[in-house]
Amino acid sequence: MTRRVVAVGLASVVGLFCLYWVRALWLPVFATWLDVGVVPPESDYALVLNGDESARPFAAASLIKLGLARKALVITSVPYPDQIDGIRPPTHEIIRRVLLKRGVPAKDIVILDRHVLTTFDEANAFADFLDSSPEVRVTVVTGDFHTRRARWVFRQVLGERAGRVFFVSAPSEDTLPDNWWRSETGVTIILGEYLRLGFYWWKYGTLRYWVLGICSLSVILPGYRWYRKSRPATEARQRTNSNRKPESFNDRTAESGSRAAETAAPVSQRN
Amino acid sequence: MCCCAALLGILGAVWLGKGAILRGAARLLIVEDPLVRPDYVWSCEADGAYDRAGALLRKNPKLRILIVENHPNRLVQAGVLPNGEEVARRQFIARGVPRGHIEIIPGEACNNRQEVRLMAQWLTSHREKQVLVLCDRFHSRYQRSVFDRLLQPEEAAAVRIQAVPDRRFDETNWWKSRIGAKELFRAYVVLALAHCRCGDPDEPIMWNPEEYEQRFRRTLGGDCR
Lengths: 271, 225
Prior knowledge:
The structure holds two protein chains of two kinds. Chain A has helices spanning 2-21, 23-34, 56-65, 81-84, 91-101, 119-132, 147-158, 184-204, 207-243, 249-264, 267-270, and strands at 43-48, 69-77, 109-116, 138-143, 165-170.
């Protein structure tokens, strides 16, 4: 038993060491899995999601320049403290300025005044836009590591209408998929993205039902096993009790009488 | 049965003391160095740091402001936004700081560590000066650890940290807002990584929009403009 434990422990240590040694082979998978961007077909709008303004609007402008989208769609967001203080322009304004700088005409920039905070809010604002223009095809431009979560959220909100929405990755300037684990920013982004995926799946998806189901099963199954294990013993005890002959009143009186006589007899007699 | 009762007891205790536990989790991230009369103030991306620096200057008119030069990102290069030093200078002047009281540390810092390294160089020629760093409240322990790691002990001792609270949340209510929870998570991750001596790349990662377009052109062939 002890030898087995030592062997398993050693094998685990060696395995972990090997995994660490070849980490450059498998850690990039965590980053590339998050990127579900495609080369989009021609669409009517390029929707630029808020955040990462030094990448996303540049990518959207490229799509418009290439004729892959006709107009740009921007949703206003809740301002950050420095934007409230006027230190930095609002996010939608930065996006608009980039698009203009990159040659997108002002008439082709549509701004939806919705003051969104999260990707889910953006999807809801976009759903309302789709209600008013149901036939349009839209390319959503967002950061490469954000595409999977964005696609999931848009599918949740739009349902069947999500078939007319495509996702394009704007390369991140914060980290690279090949070596994200080597930088603070990279780890924060990738880890944060997985946690947010989990949070969204919990809040807006089916994760909480899965967790509830697994928790219930983990209580019910051991309980049932314990019940099955303890049942034969109970049944055997019951069977023994039922097989024993019911004692008659006379037997019990005779027994108690003989026990009384034994007690009453002198010590010499008993010996 | 006993295990279940113990578990329920623990859960009950955690529930009753959740406020204290959550506050404690945030307080672990906060460092407040004892206050001294600083010679310089460096504002390091904290909410309301410009206002605080202005208020400090009104109390101590000899105080000077330090600004560390940053590498211009694509938005600055494209002329969409002014560079960080220009923005900071304007904000300080708007708060009554005389132009002569603003000192720029030259360089092209891409991240916080590089800013600290530039400051270390500056400190070697400004010995005996006390610098007060105004930084985000939840990132103050991280900032302290970066200074302690990258600066010589006597230089690190000359740098004092003041943790500036964010107007949206602090250690007493961070769990009530999504942004507060996000910031707490981020602060713990960067602090853990700082202890693992993990940094950010020294060279900025920048992609070229023209190359990005070319990539699409190659994929689509003649189907695009």
